Amino acid sequence: MGNGIPIINEPVEEKIATVIADDLEIKGTIAFKTSVMLKGIFEGEIFSEGLLVVGPTAKVTATISTKTLVSHGEIRGDVIAEKQVVLRGTSTHTGDIKAPYIMIESGAAFNGACIMERGKTTLPVYDATPEDQQPEESSGAPDTLSVDEAEGEEPKPGEFL
Amino acid sequence: MIPEKKAGSSEYDEKDITTVVADDLEIRGTIKFKTSVMLKGIFEGEIFSEGLLVVGPTAKVTATISTKTLVSHGEISGNVTATDQVTLKNSSLHNGDISTPNIIIENGAVFNGSCSMRPKDAATG
After folding, report:
1. How many CA atoms lie within 13 A of A16 on its CB side?
2. Nearest-by-Cβ selection for B110 from A104, A106, A116
3. Which ipTM value was assigned to this complex?
4. Which residues from chain B sit within 8 angstroms of residue A107, using beta carbons?
5. pTM over 0.80
6. Cβ atoms of B107 and A5 closer than 8 Å
């Protein structure tokens, strides 16, 4: 194609870094950088800088942010993908999708809104994750605290004279 | 007669389509048809179809569309209700909501809007 459309490069299961089997149920948050395939039940949040594959047996109820999502299974929740979302023919998706490229195969069910923005560039520009760099403006807090605490017990000048 | 897809592909042959509206024709208003229409020009208004609507790659359609099948290679702004299937080809741009039991969005297509599909199990009604 050569016009910026990402080629769907779905690795075989053996090449995926983590494969979570279909008898495993996870509730909580997962974060990863390379690739994960979910085949079981997941509830919570997914933060990925790589590829998330939702297997045909998987049931995922999650807020997902990833680079690429390939779904064969069931997802409930909103998805933000930096690069691409692929809904395969067996997949069911209930929730909003935001991604620059989306492919939906015949047979897939998608209920939700779809937002595609290709403003800047077709290739994902890696920007530092905001989670690590949230500057906490903590300088103001101790001051006000100390004022409150110091009230009434301020050392009176001249008392010890 | 609603044309059949070409053997071994999901494309329709332009020759099989009853009406082909060429790319220099601009239409404003309402069109209604039962078999098949291919739009290649500019259309604004409403489309009521009981058959196949093909939006060509050069077409710019601003319309509320209700059809059986929609295949888009071009630009559509407006809401679409399809009783059978919607296909957004890789060159297509769609701004508006889609309601259909079966949707195909090719890699490269742009879709901004919401999509509502009846669950597969209940799609018999």
Report:
1. 22
2. A116
3. 0.76
4. 102
5. no
6. yes
